[in-house]
Structure formats: structure tokens, C-alpha cells
Amino acid sequence: MNVLIIGANGQIGRHVVKKLQDSREHNPIAMVRKEEQKAEFEAKGVKTALVDLEGDIDDIASAAEDADAIVFTAGSGGHTGADKTMMIDFDGAIKSMEAAKKAGVNRFVIVSAIGVHHRDKWMSSAAYYSAAKYYADVWLENSGLDYTIIRPGGLTNEQGTGKIKAAADLERGQIPREDVATTIVSSLENDRTIGKAFDMISGETPIEDALKTL
After folding, report:
1. CA–CA separation, 93 vs 135, rounded Å?
2. How far apart are CA 142 and CA 201, in angstroms?
């Protein structure tokens, strides 16, 4: 499976690229927006696409033309304001979905955030972030694409354990970015995750087994 990773230079995206590259079944296509990022991935033997997510939909669709699936892990980051969050986490996600349809790519996995499907769990200090994630998810659910929405808890840089807790609704907790990446790859390999949206945090169940219970 050829997988376009939008947000490949991000912390989760880098894990996804590596796991796909290390597998025997998949080939990553890293979508990045800077020449130095492109050069770095290419030096590792990773196919790349130089595209600005705030640019034209046709450019994103062109990057996806050889893809069988798209993984959206892009995010504006905590150091930006509401305007950038809306342009990347919301509009960028929707443009990616439109590009997927234009390129004929039906499989789409998006990284969201835990609890955003409940407005009463939105943190007042960053409600714009939760709103952006929530409405991007709603758009995806109504897009006609074969979607999976992954809503991880607080992200850490600890080594992954390969074990999670996954359900439609969970109390907030933490999870290593590596385990989120492994869950993304496992979701691509498991058609049972199509049409599913779920919260996830660290747990005691192996990732593949946890996804079977959704």
C-alpha cells in the first residue's frame, strides 16, 4: 500500500513514515513543505512531495495520485494562534479530503484529539483547537471516504509500549506518539476500523487486539 502522510515532518508523522518504510507491505510518501525537509526524507530513501497545505487543492491531489491511502497527521502546533489552527487543523484537513476524492483515494485516516466530539470536554483556553478538530472530523464522516478517526490523549515522547486502551469515549490520559503511529498503521491494515472514530490512551491491550473490539 502506498500511503501519503500529510504532516510527515511532525512528531507523529515521522514515526508513521519510519514504520511504513520498515514494513514489507507499505511504501510511505512524505508530504512536506520545505526543501530541507524534502532532502532529509529523500536521503533516507523515502519518496516525497513538496506541497504547502495552505496552497492549492490540486497540488495535494497531485501528491496523492500514486497513493492508496492518506494519513493526515498535520497540526499547527501549540505555538501558533487560532488563525493558523483553523487554516491547518480545519481547512487543511478538509482540503486534504477534497484532494483525496479528486485523486480517487478512498482510504483516509486522521489524527484528531481525545474528547473533541463532546463540547463539554473542550478546554475554554483552547476551544478553537477542539472546534477545528471536531468539525474536520464531522466533515470526514460525511465525505463518503473510507475513514478512520483516531483521537489520542495527551501525547508524550516516551517509547511506545504497543498496548493501548481504545473506545468511543474515554477519560483523558496520555499516550506515546509512537503508539499513535503504530495504531495508524494497524488501522490501515484492518478494514474493521473503516467508519470508526475512537479515543485512545495507553492501556494493557495489544494494539491489534484493541482495534478488533471497536
Report:
1. 10
2. 26
Contact 73, 96 (CB under 8 A): no
Of 128, 129, 134, 147, the active-site residue reads 129
Decide if 151 contacts 193 (C-beta within 8 A): no
Q: Which domain covers residue 124, as residue numbers?
A: 2-212
CA distance 2 to 54: 23
- The answer to whether 134 is a known catalytic residue is no
Q: Residue 29 forms beta bridges with which residues? A: 4, 47
pLDDT digits (tens, 9 = 90+) for 95-153: 999 999 999 999 999 999 999 999 887 877 778 899 999 999 999 999 999 999 999 99
Report how far residue 19's alpha carbon sits from residue 26's, in angstroms, rounded to the nearest whole number. Answer: 9
CATH code, domain carrying 48: 3.40.50.720
User: Can you tell me whether residue 12 is helix, strand or coil?
Assistant: helix
Give this prediction's pTM.
0.95
The answer to whether 138 and 100 have CB atoms below 8 angstroms apart is no
Kindly state the helix (H) or strand (E) to which residue 130 belongs, with its residue range: helix 127-141
Residue 80's H or E segment, with its range, is none
The residues, ordered by sequence, that sit 6+ positions from 77 with a Cβ below 8 Å of its Cβ are none
Q: Going by DSSP bridges, is the β-strand pair 69-72/174-176 parallel, antiparallel, or unpaired?
A: unpaired
Look at the chain and report how many structural domains it folds into.
1
**Beta bridge partner(s), residue 166:** 200
Q: What is the mean pLDDT of residues 49-56?
A: 95
